[in-house]
Amino acid sequence: MRQLCPSMIVQFSTGGRGRDPSQRGNALNLKPDMASLSTGSVNFPTIVYANHATLVEDLARRMKEFGVRPEIEIFDLSHLHGARRLADRGLLDERPHIQFVMGVQNALPAEERLLDILLAEAKYLFPACTWTAAGIGRHQAQVMEWALARRADAVRTGLEDNIRITKDRLAASNAELVALAADAVRRHGRRVATADEARAILALKPAHGTQAP
Known about the structure:
Layout: E1 2-3, E2 11-12, E3 34-38, E4 42-43, E5 48-49, H1 53-66, E6 69-74, H2 77-88, E7 97-102, H3 112-125, E8 130-135, H4 140-149, E9 164-166, E10 169-170, H5 174-187, H6 195-201, E11 210-211
Parallel strand pairs: 2-3, 3-6, 6-7, 7-8
Antiparallel strand pairs: 1-11, 4-5, 9-10
């Protein structure tokens, strides 16, 4: 009997809060579909999330070597220009997937007008890019609505960014947050993509089936 593997998209993090920078790309040789790539440093609540230019270039180079598609994490307008410099050096293609991160304390506020500025600059620098926006903590649902209203290619949700359904109630699971995101997609007159459709949107290779007895 032939059994196909689920076409789940696997994405690793190369984030490094409190981690030795030399270790941040160690798992890229496992060839996940995607990996996060922050293209500049930013203030976080208690630390600086440091992304030195040489580290960013090294991570981008390793992603290209192993066929891993970057998700460009944008915490500041200048980070878009960091991504453009990588593309100019042949380390990114002209259709990157860009994620704007909003609402981190001491960093980019979650304000709708700022999303418009970021999106306009992203489309100027990378006309063919796909994009989404992530709201941290209590901003998660609101930023998702702003992104959907602007026809984002994807939405982001989950316990990594936000643990609450309301101010007074914790989310039961990632599944509960995903269900709310799916409802938001439908409210905006769209439908949730299948895994294979999501792969096509993000310019990923099709998933491969495996043989099982």
